[in-house]
Every structure is written in C-alpha cells, then in structure tokens.
Amino acid sequence: MSQCEALPLILVVEDEPEIRRFLRVSLTGNGYQILEATKGEEALTLAADKKPDVIILDLGLPDIDGTEVAGKIREWSQVPIIILSARNQEVDKVAALDLGADDYLTKPFGVYELLARIKVALKHASRAKTEEEEPVFSAGKICVDMAKRLVFLDGEEVHLTPNEYKLLLTLVQSPGKLISQQQLLRAVWGPGYAKEGHYLRVYMGQLRRKLEEDPANPKHLITEPGLGYRFCE
Length: 233
Ligand code: CA
What we know:
Blueprint: H1 3-6, E1 9-13, H2 17-28, E2 33-37, H3 40-50, E3 54-58, H4 66-74, E4 81-85, H5 90-98, E5 103-106, H6 111-130, E6 136-139, E7 142-145, E8 150-153, E9 156-158, H7 162-172, E10 178-180, H8 181-188, H9 197-211, E11 221-224, E12 228-231
Parallel strand pairs: 1-2, 1-3, 3-4, 4-5
Antiparallel strand pairs: 6-7, 7-8, 8-9, 10-12, 11-12
Helix pairs in contact: 3-4, 4-5, 7-9
The protein binds calcium ion (CA).
C-alpha cells in the first residue's frame, strides 16, 4: 500500500471560507486528506459516497442544520463526528452530542486543539472497529486493572464502590473523549437515570478525592460544563 492511501480522510463541513481555509491548511499540512462541503445536503452525500474517517461538522449551515446532519449520519454510520460551534450555540451543541456527535470544538480554536481532537476520534474509532481492549490502563499515577477490577494510585490499591468503578471504567475506556452525561448515567445506573445529572457530580467528586492529587483542580477527571466528562491522560 502506498503511503498516500493510508492517510486518514477527513470530511470538513463548513460554510465560512476562512475557517474552511484554516482547516484545509492545518489538516493537509499534518498528514490528512480532506474533502470539503459547504452545505448539509452535500455533506450527507459525501459522507455516504466517500466514507471519511472523521467528519468535522459546523452547526450553522446555510441549508439544513448541522444537528440534523449529525442525526442523519448516525442513522447508518458510527464515523466520529466533531462539531464546530460558536459560543452562542450551547443548546445546539448539547443536541448534537445527544444525537451521537463525538466531540466538539468551540470557535475560535487553535490547530493543536484541532489535531488533538482528531487523534482521539481516530483512536477511538479504530478501537471500536477491532474491539481490542487493553486489560490494564494507566495514566500518570492512576492505574486500572480491568481484568481484576482493581484501581491503583501510585502503586497503592484504592478502594472504589461498584458505581465509582463503573464510572471510572466508562471514562478510561475512551481516554480523551468527551462522554456525555446521558451516556455516563446510562452506563453506570441504567437507562432510567438519564436525567439524574447530580449523581454524576457527587460520584465525580468522590472519584476526584480518591484519585486526584488536588481534587479542586483535577488533571484527569475533567468536567465539561453542561455536557459531560472527559478523562485526560
Ligand atoms: Ca457556519
């Protein structure tokens, strides 16, 4: 296989020429191939025809809403979707994440943030494809032995309650990825608990006290206000 064929393909859906140019320069300069769409309908066609590895999707498009585009793609594809939103689009952002978008970037964003998000999305997608799971996860001083269901901090075993463990496990299974409140509540407490966001605040506080050096300024267990949580390595 030639090197060219192995380059991940990214579909950029954005109607603003300046942001599109920024994305084109940043992505092609960092080892990605890109496809561009300026409208939602065009994005749906390209997503189906070209099967990109990642989709970067602006929420404010001239024809159909980006939120709707994300929902339609999710009906048939699990391709990672990173949404681009403006500061005044918080509600749309939450809706897009609920419909299955994977992550988001708020404009304006920098090239490093962009590349980091894409890397996480690609890693997560390839992991989902191969179903391959590392039995031991470690980041900084935290180590999770998934086979034995044990958690260590700096080599010392930390006792977690079953729900604390499930919450931590759900986060570390997709390191770096934003996991929505609903996803976490469903994974830990079950489908009837999707609105109990306060459970998460309480349990995340407990996890931080047990695992973070400075629970008030967490390095790993990060809150994305109004959206969900992310485990940073
Ligand atoms: Ca726009």
